[in-house]
Description:
The structure holds two protein chains of two kinds.
Chain A: E1 5-6, E2 9-10, H1 11-42, H2 49-67, H3 70-93, H4 102-123, E3 139-141, E4 146-148, H5 149-171, H6 173-183, H7 185-190, H8 195-221, H9 228-242, H10 247-267, H11 272-286
Antiparallel strand pairs in A: 1-2, 3-4
Chain B: E1 10-19, E2 22-32, E3 37-41, H1 48-56, E4 61-68, E5 71-72, H2 78-83, E6 86-89, H3 101-115, H4 121-138, H5 140-143, H6 155-167, E7 173-177, H7 185-200, E8 204-208, H8 212-218, E9 221-226, E10 229-235, H9 236-240, H10 243-250
Parallel strand pairs in B: 3-8, 3-9, 6-7, 7-8
Antiparallel strand pairs in B: 1-2, 1-4, 4-5, 9-10
Helix pairs in contact in B: 3-4, 3-6
Amino acid sequence: xxxxxxxxxxxxxxxxxxxxxxxxxxxxxxxxxxxxxxxxxxxxxxxxxxxxxxxxxxxxxxxxxxxxxxxxxxxxxxxxxxxxxxxxxxxxxxxxxxxxxxxxxxxxxxxxxxxxxxxxxxxxxxxxxxxxxxxxxxxxxxxxxxxxxxxxxxxxxxxxxxxxxxxxxxxxxxxxxxxxxxxxxxxxxxxxxxxxxxxxxxxxxxxxxxxxxxxxxxxxxxxxxxxxxxxxxxxxxxxxxxxxxxxxxxxxxxxxxxxxxxxxxxxxxxxxxxxxxxxxxxxxxxxxxxxxxxxxxxx
Amino acid sequence: xxxxxxxxxxxxxxxxxxxxxxxxxxxxxxxxxxxxxxxxxxxxxxxxxxxxxxxxxxxxxxxxxxxxxxxxxxxxxxxxxxxxxxxxxxxxxxxxxxxxxxxxxxxxxxxxxxxxxxxxxxxxxxxxxxxxxxxxxxxxxxxxxxxxxxxxxxxxxxxxxxxxxxxxxxxxxxxxxxxxxxxxxxxxxxxxxxxxxxxxxxxxxxxxxxxxxxxxxxxxxxxxxxxxxxxxxxxxxxxxxxxxxxxxxxxx
Lengths: 299, 252
């Protein structure tokens, strides 16, 4: 295998980086979809989304320390962040609806600092090391080389979640309300639906997805209070590249950004940030609304 | 005359409404009795649309009294007014882009479904399908297009869909804002026949209409709105026989 090379890199190394890129991309997709849903429905740019990602990771790692069950953490982290998201929407964000896009943006920006500082106070500045749980350690031979089992699990699990989410939005009544509410919240109210409840639920759902992404990402590099900051930037790129409010766009863009990050880190590790913003600039030049974006679209 | 005995289904008293600093409604009063078709006519900007929006709860700043089925609804949000049996077909139709005709129709009954005593979702899904089928029979133009993206239909078909969607939850009263606007005459006649059928089925209608001739044909009573208040009010037949009043207030 190793005698095949592309651009000086052995093929199996490239394949490994590709899997790493898709795994990173899966994280970005989960974070980006939440961001995109919340923006698509409520016009709220949730700057605390990275902080929900980080706190979700901490909740998961903390619980793992007590119970030793990664599976429990995988359920508890999104649940906890979903509940926190509900509280944040109900108490902090809701009074700001109808006041333009700036107010909730500033509020969530401030909230992200509060969340990061709280974690620093509670768990220390240095972060916690965290590896893949024993049952997901090791490597798997896929015929073209060995791949870390955890990354493959992460990809499969995330894609399952995204698939379930797609079914939820496309096939259920609540999903229909979400799609309609993103386009025309007023007509949804006229048809008897209490839109504020829909907004509450979607904010909670978005934050739960961020929490899930956090605990899924934890075994990749451990958890630190700052782990949400780069992810937020990447998730913004994902929503912009994919098209604001587009679920399929977020998936496509998330994987694209993940692969670009992984491949760039192979040739020039310092340039990954620049590479994704270059990607964003390029996409916006060709398609100003993103790859699959339509005005006010969701779906 | 039964009208003497029965209280009006909808009573608007001394309604005032603002958008920002512009004062649109300046003490408008009207009544609609159960089973009637009542039409509001008047020039553009007279306040007809704002009247309907206020009745549906879509105007943030308003004063006065709006009573529907004996309940004061002035401060109730739109979704509660829906649950009391009010339906609203806006001038712009507001067909939701990205959704099929069928999905737009389902949207019209989703909330009503939640209202019913039936706990299990499955039976209500059945109700939903049955209702869509019944509505599609009433509006044959929609029947072949159920799976089509609704926004790709013609203006007239979209208007039919907007009306059909409002009827999905079997409302007590429908507010219709300029349904004939920008629609082919042949479709307009079909639509007005539909209104007569709705009335026959027991639905009360409050209509805003520029096409005064057609509106007079199907209406029981007419209010002329000017400068945010009612300036004339009579049975439809009476206005029909008064070309002078028609010319003064209804000329566009």
